[in-house]
Design a protein that fits this description.
heterodimer; A: alpha+beta; seven-stranded antiparallel sheet; 11 helices; 21 strands; 22% strand; B: alpha+beta; Nucleotidyltransferase, domain 5; Dna Ligase, domain 1; nine-stranded mixed sheet; 34 strands
């Protein structure tokens, strides 16, 4: 068993006036905001600048998270173990110096979710003093391995999932190790993009480094170190205050995966501890639907933030009250070299499980279940005109659960995502050489209730050249998202491939399924769960639903007793 | 007959009017005059007519009238627009509701998406399809068929539901608008009374959600905005006005009233834009080409950068976007303004964890700052300026109000108590945090965009501009601050000093190599012809039109582009190489590295200016006894707290009595009815020929 506790704070008692402390702390946020903006402007692939599959963060000299750039909540707590892994490996005097940048992508060694997420780490010095760290992690579209894009539910171990970068010093005193970059480019199916995304990460961290050093120059290193320590302590005080206001007790949930395995959790909330117990779940899987301990910890952090108050600081201090209990060598704490490329589906399933445990007790913070699958869609093939090899990596939008006071939100990214943008059809068609035939709300039945679950989507990609492929590993393809208080479950996530011949086949998981010109991939995502008994939905509202086509007249008659009254 | 040229700007409280006469013999401008009248909602045109009456202007003499109004932004924020129907390409009517799927408030699992401006049943589809190259993949079909209800059924539904305006957005219409044009004509033929706008009339850029939303918001505001402009025009015509009528645009230029009536969404940010335009026009007059316009009002501070005389534009403008909400995009060129929730009325407060914050909550006009004595209990930035002696309690708001200093001191004592700070320390804290917030906003428009503040002057206006500018310039190493004369009617004045301006952005996505040259030449030529033809229709002679051209480039795969200016009519293969070299240089300057990866063109930018006549401004009287004049402008000294720079017995000047050419050194305070200018110890001040204050901070230019 692994008990994952966070160490106690280091204290710095330098006398600095409270106004200066506040100004430095606000500047910390500005540093990570600038790192975030720079990455977004320089990155080479839409998985980074639109999907925002990247994160930036800054740390104190001990590697404790101080501030992070906004984007995906699922990455905020992820980078801290990465910095710790660098400190553990490079622990001798002189190992870490100004101008160094480290690089890692082995999930089981810390700070990484799957191998496509390449982490860059930069130590910041004021003179000779190490004053903190910056880190940047981003999803690279291809790092080699057995499967294009590096992702497949069929992967059996890490060796099939791409090139391993075992916490190496890729830039030393400002000098890049060209051999490493050459190896990466040689291994990637998208070498130009990999090179561009590497330099985008470096530019982002150097922008942060300039600001960080300027802060130390302006206010003095002791004042900055004090302000960072105080910031982390403030995070802890906020979290502990919020914890006291939460309902205390034990909260359980179970859920069945698509392959029929039961998952379970017990969450215990007291005045001092937010304990997430995930013991008793299945062992490490033979396929790639495993996640590492660090990824599981992030789930506990995200649900903790959601219920404590989304406006609170999110730093190392905030997360100190969290205790995570999980079996070693299990699907929530896989051991090296277990395959983890589809970790994101297991992690969103795990997040949904924690959400389900707490939702009945916290209707003012949590909705009924959402579509709960990243629905990562990997497509590739030659451009129909240029023949250039293309690779698309896209999560899909889906329906969110209804709340105690209102209907669910239609077509939003998962709770694991944040300020993630979809790729416009007009841009996708030019860039990727396919056609988007449809992007609409799904009209499948499901999610009915006093408040209706949000609608999932239909997205149809028409393939325009032969020699294409698609890889997916959707979950929630059998059981729809859970309703609350009598609300109906939502619908399910899947794809259908419609061949040029008209033949249809339905898939949840597929690896490099061949596609040719004229084939259409129909992505369908789930509606969220309903909230409350459908019989309690006012007739006028049902009539509006029918008028707007959110519910068909037949389904409305069946579930709500609708008789064709006008809205 | 003497000609009059006038500009009016409708604000929340006052409607400003600035005008001048042109000497019919010499052609020179004379008598620049300003008038204020009360703003008269909801009949805003009445306030404008009142101002004209107050000025005693004979409308028959008016050759030129420019107008700035908040009618569009108010219609949007108050949700008082028209019932809109939307027609899209088949398969895409939900794009408006799906939006981009993002959730900025990312820890919040009870996030609510902004509601679309058109409900689902009023979003209908027609069968048609263009490709990204602008080729017809499927012809437009208006008749009903097996999988399409047809236009007649759509319009019947819209009529039955009381639709007042129709927006059209078809896929790839930016590349070929033929289907949108045909659909708009078909609607006009079937239903001539309804307002119709198609997306390509407003913007020619890709990204269907943004373009659809832009067309929808245009339709939403069109009936009301158009009615308002017509009422104003009618009121002016009734008085005999038959001159040229222009409307202030969000892009920092003015355009004809006919254009504004067609696509009123382009005037959405005209208020803030005209302030930036005023700063740019002042810079033009003074020969200052690089400046940052900085406007501190009651609840917010706004800033925008002017580079080599050009206002900065963004095509990523959004309304109601913040950390909590994804907001709504409006894809038209808008002056790139960063706005933060810190103004004179912003409240200082302490959170549950002992951190002092300033804003974004504001005391507003009612109850207003504590000093107003109207029941405000929360200390504001304005109160802090009073507390520290920077603002004169006996000349508060031009002497209209006697500041309640006992209440101010008590408010700061309360604020500071939990932090162990006394009232003065708390007031200093509020100023320091407010300044820090404003400095961050100034960094966002300068350093974060790759500009060095040392190359810029800070033009500070609005009620609070002069109080904070000197300290901010010091903080950011900005060498000089300009506090304009007549800052209170700055926006209206800017319109009189502005050329006509139209921005054309055309998505033209191609690999940037020698093969692209002819296509770019043709496309830019077509845009220039379009601009010239539009101006010619309005009687503007081609000789008055000048163009700025730029190409938006990026490395293949990226989303963000870098603009490279280009000034030839024709593009050759050599020009392509030069443009590429400029791109790599500009990219490296901003991001510290360049790549040898392939580069692609995304969009063509064309700005068409049409020159208008501008007045030469009258100068202030100079003095042959500067020392005597300076002394005559002195008011009684007082002690002023400059925080880290000490507490000083400080000279106070009456701005209205400072003649041109006067110089003095800080610490000093300059008072006028609308505002106060703070000069820090050691800073040098000069009054220029037009009455503007120039503060030199002693920071060297880069």
């Amino acid at each position: 068993m692994t008990q994952h506790d966070t160490p106690s704070p280091t204290r710095n008692q330098a006398p600095v006036d409270p106004i200066t402390v506040e100004i430095i702390q606000s500047s910390l946020r500005a540093i990570t905001d600038e790192m975030f903006a720079t990455m977004r402007k320089t990155a080479m692939s839409s998985i980074i600048y639109e999907v925002l599959d990247f994160g930036v963060a800054m740390f104190d000299a001990d590697g404790q998270l101080a501030s992070s750039g906004s984007g995906i909540p699922g990455f905020i707590g992820m980078l801290e173990p990465g910095v710790k892994s660098v400190r553990a490996k490079y622990h001798r005097p002189g190992d870490v110096g100004p101008g160094d940048i480290f690089m890692t992508n082995i999930p089981h060694h810390g700070g990484v979710s799957h191998m496509n997420d390449v982490v860059l780490i930069l130590p910041v010095f004021a003179g000779d003093t190490l004053i903190g760290w910056l880190a940047n992690k981003a999803h690279w579209v291809d790092l080699g391995g057995a499967f294009p894009g590096g992702i497949s539910a069929d992967a059996r171990d890490l060796y099939q999932e791409g090139l391993q970068l075992p916490c190496i010093k890729v830039i030393e005193a400002g000098q890049v190790n060209q051999a490493v970059l050459d190896i990466i480019q040689a291994n990637s199916r998208q070498p130009d993009i990999s090179k561009g995304d590497f330099w985008a990460g470096v530019a982002s961290m150097r922008a942060g480094e300039r600001r960080f050093k300027a802060l130390a120059e302006k206010y003095g290193t002791p004042a900055v170190l004090h302000a960072i320590a105080d910031y982390i302590e403030t995070g802890e005080r906020m979290a502990r205050a919020a914890l006291k206001a939460l309902p205390h007790g034990r909260f359980d949930a179970t859920e069945r995966t698509d392959d029929g395995i039961e998952l379970r959790t017990t969450i215990t909330i007291t005045d001092d501890v937010f304990e997430v117990d995930l013991r008793g779940n299945p062992p490490t899987r033979a396929d790639a639907l495993n996640c590492t301990l660090d990824a599981t910890m992030v789930n506990a952090q995200m649900i903790f933030m959601a219920i404590c108050g989304p406006d609170n600081l999110a730093n190392s201090g905030t997360f100190r009250p969290i205790r995570l209990l999980v079996d070693d060598d299990s699907m929530f704490a896989a051991r090296y070299p277990a395959a983890v490329s589809v970790y994101y589906e297991t992690t969103v399933t795990g997040f949904d499980l924690l959400w389900k445990a707490l939702a009945p007790a916290l209707p003012e913070r949590l909705t009924a279940g959402h579509y709960a699958s990243i629905c990562g869609t990997f497509l590739g093939g030659p451009h129909p005109e240029t023949g250039q090899a293309l690779g698309i990596v896209e999560p899909q939008l889906g329906g969110w659960g209804a709340a105690a006071t209102r209907d669910g939100v239609n077509a939003l990214y998962t709770g694991y995502h944040g300020d993630t943008f979809n790729v416009p059809a007009e841009v996708a068609e030019q860039r990727n050489g396919l056609m988007v035939d449809r992007l609409s709300l799904s009209e499948a039945p499901g999610g009915e209730g006093r408040h209706m679950g949000g609608r999932g989507i239909r997205l149809h990609y028409r393939i325009m050249a032969d020699g294409w492929w698609i890889t997916t590993a959707y979950v929630r393809t059998e059981n729809g998202p859970w309703g609350l208080d009598g609300g109906r479950p939502g619908s399910t996530n899947f794809i259908e491939v419609v061949r040029a011949s008209g033949e249809r086949s339905r898939h949840a998981a597929c690896t490099a399924l061949p596609l040719n010109a004229g084939d259409v991939v129909e992505v369908v995502t789930a509606h969220g769960g309903g909230y409350g008994d459908p019989a309690e939905r006012p007739a006028r509202q049902v009539a509006e639903d029918v008028k707007n086509g959110y519910v068909s007249p037949d389904r409305a008659a069946e579930v709500y007793g609708y008789r064709g009254d006008p809205a | 007959m003497t000609q009059i040229r006038a500009a009016s700007d409708v604000g929340g409280t006052f409607t400003d009017l600035v005008y001048y006469e042109i000497d019919d013999r010499t052609g020179e401008a004379r008598h620049i005059t300003e008038v204020k009248a009360h703003t008269t909602p909801p009949n805003f045109q009445q306030g404008v007519m009142d101002a004209l009456d107050k000025a005693g202007i004979d409308a028959r003499q008016m050759a030129f009238f420019a107008h700035g109004s908040t009618v569009v932004i108010n219609t949007l924020t108050e949700r008082k627009g028209a019932a809109v129907g939307l027609i899209t390409t088949q398969g895409f009517r939900d794009v408006l509701e799906i939006a981009r799927g993002n959730r900025p408030d990312f820890f919040n699992l009870l996030y609510e998406k902004p509601a679309p401006f058109v409900p689902r049943h009023l979003r209908r589809e027609v069968a048609e399809r263009m490709t990204y190259k602008g080729e017809v993949a499927q012809p437009l079909a208006l008749d009903a068929s097996e999988d399409s209800e047809g236009l007649d059924a759509i319009l019947d539904h819209f009529r039955a539901e009381g639709v007042e305006a129709i927006a059209i957005c078809l896929l790839h219409a930016y590349a070929n608008p033929a289907h949108e044009q045909a659909l708009a004509q078909a609607i006009a033929a079937r239903w001539p009374e309804v307002a119709v706008v198609a997306s390509h009339q407003i913007c020619r850029e890709w990204r269907e959600y943004e373009r659809t939303n832009t067309a929808v918001l245009n339709a939403y505001v069109q009936p009301r905005a158009s009615a308002y402009l017509t009422q104003l025009q009618d009121a002016l015509t009734t008085k005999g006005f038959d001159g040229a009528f222009y409307v202030m645009q969000s892009n920092g230029g003015i355009d004809t009233v006919e254009a504004a009536r067609r696509t009123p969404i382009t005037i959405v940010e005209s208020g803030p834009a005209s302030g930036v335009l005023g700063a740019a026009a002042l810079g033009e007059l003074l020969g200052v080409r690089n400046l940052i316009a900085f406007d501190i009002g009651g609840t917010t501070a706004k800033c925008s950068l002017v580079d080599d005389g050009q206002v900065s534009l963004t095509s990523q403008y959004m309304i109601e976007r913040d950390d909590r909400s994804a907001g709504y995009p409006i894809m038209t060129p808008v002056v790139d303004i960063v706005e933060i929730g810190n103004g004179g009325g912003s409240i200082g407060w302490i959170d549950d964890f002992g951190k002092l914050h300033v804003g974004p909550q504001s005391a507003g006009a009612d109850p207003g700052p504590v000093a107003y004595g109207r029941g405000g209990r929360d200390a504001t930035t304005t109160d802090a300026n009073l507390m520290l002696g920077r603002v004169n309690p006996d000349y508060f708001i031009g002497g209209e109000v006697k500041a309640d200093m006992a209440a101010v001191e008590a408010a700061f004592a309360r604020l500071g108590q939990p932090l162990g700070l006394d009232a003065v320390q708390a007031a200093r804290g509020v100023i320091r945090i407010a300044n820090h917030n404003m400095a961050n906003a100034l960094k966002l428009v300068s350093i974060n965009r790759g500009y060095d503040p040392r190359d810029f002057a800070l033009v500070a206006f609005g009620g609070g501009g002069g109080m904070h500018a000197a300290a901010l310039a010091e903080e950011l190493n900005i060498p000089s601050v300009i506090v304009p004369a007549k800052a209170s009617v700055f926006s209206a004045w800017g319109m009189l000093m502005s050329d006509l301006r139209r921005d054309y952005v055309q998505t033209h996505a191609v690999a940037m190599d020698a093969h692209a040259a002819d296509g770019i030449t043709d496309a830019l030529g077509a845009l220039r012809d379009q601009a010239l033809a539009a101006y010619a229709d309005e009687g503007v002679k081609p000789g008055r039109v000048r163009f700025d051209q730029a190409l938006e480039l990026r490395y293949v795969g990226q989303a963000h582009t870098v603009k490279v200016a280009f000034d030839h009519d024709r593009l050759t293969a050599d020009d392509i190489d030069r443009v590429l070299a400029d791109f790599h240089t500009a990219y490296e300057k901003t991001y510290t590295y360049a790549l040898d990866n392939p580069v692609e063109l995304v969009s063509l930018n064309l700005t068409a200016f049409a020159a208008i006549d501008k007045p030469t401004l009258p100068k202030l009287a100079t003095t042959d006894d500067p020392a005597g004049a300076l002394n005559a402008a002195r008011k009684p000294d007082r002690r002023v707290d400059f925080d880290a720079q000490g507490v000083h017995q400080t000279a106070i000047y009456d701005r209205d009595r400072l003649p041109a050419g006067t110089t003095f050194t800080g610490p000093a305070i300059v008072e006028e009815a609308g505002t106060t200018t703070v000069v820090l110890p050691g800073q040098r001040v000069r009054v220029d020929d037009y009455g503007n204050l120039h503060i030199e901070t002693g920071k060297a230019t880069a």
